[in-house]
Amino acid sequence: MTFVDKLVRVNGFMFERLQFLINNEDVFLSVQASAYNYCSPRVTLPAAKYYDEFEVAVIVGDAWATTHSGHLPDVLALLGPYADAVCGDTQVFCRVPKDVVQKVYELLLKKETQ
Fold first, then answer.
1. Which of 24, 68, 69, 76 suits 82 as a labelling partner, its CA being 20 to 30 A distant?
2. Which parts of the chain fold into alpha helices (H)?
3. Is 34 strand, coil or helix?
4. Of all residues in the chain, what percent are helix, strand and coil, respectively (each to 5)?
5. End-to-end CA distance of the chain
6. ∠ CA 99-80-3 to the nearest 5 degrees?
7. What is the per-residue pLDDT across 6-40, written as a single tens digit (0 to 9) for each?
8. 26, 51 contact by CB (below 8 A)
9. What sign has the CA pseudo-torsion 19, 68, 71, 110?
10. Backbone angles phi, psi at 111, to 5 degrees
11. Residues 6+ away with beta carbon under 8 Å from 22
């Protein structure tokens, strides 16, 4: 199953976060795409399958996982090249290609089963 099969819109423009349990800690993968997100195309479409690029964030417990936080370094290494350079934000990853998001999703699934 791909991550796009798991994404469900919870209102007119947001997708519900994907949840994992890793090392007894909740980890959430936020994958967003709409007219309000850094995605492609940058319009609000009915389903995730219509997007090529997504805005992504990882939340560990109740804290944002950043490229400097030390949380999930292998996951953040995949996302690092897409950090929002405009505002220096290292917790939101912009225009992440679908195949990279799929790799992140699979890595989190693998960690969950370890």
1. 24
2. 3-6, 73-79, 98-113
3. coil
4. 30, 30, 40
5. 19
6. 30
7. 999 998 889 999 999 998 999 999 999 999 999 99
8. no
9. positive
10. -65, -35
11. 72, 108, 111, 112
pLDDT digits (tens, 9 = 90+) for 78-101: 998 998 765 555 788 999 999 999
Instruction: Kindly list the distances between the CA atom of residue 74 and the CA atoms of 3, 42, 93, 103, in Å, as whole numbers in the listed order.
Output: 18, 28, 15, 11
Two structure tokens written together for 92: 């939101």
- Break the chain into its structural domains and give their ranges: 3-108
- Strand, coil or helix: 17: coil
Q: What is the pTM of this model?
A: 0.93
What pLDDT score does 99 carry? Answer: 98
Q: Which two tokens stand for residue 41?
A: 């195309």
pLDDT digits 0-9 by tens, 49-84: 999 999 999 999 988 888 777 789 999 999 989 987
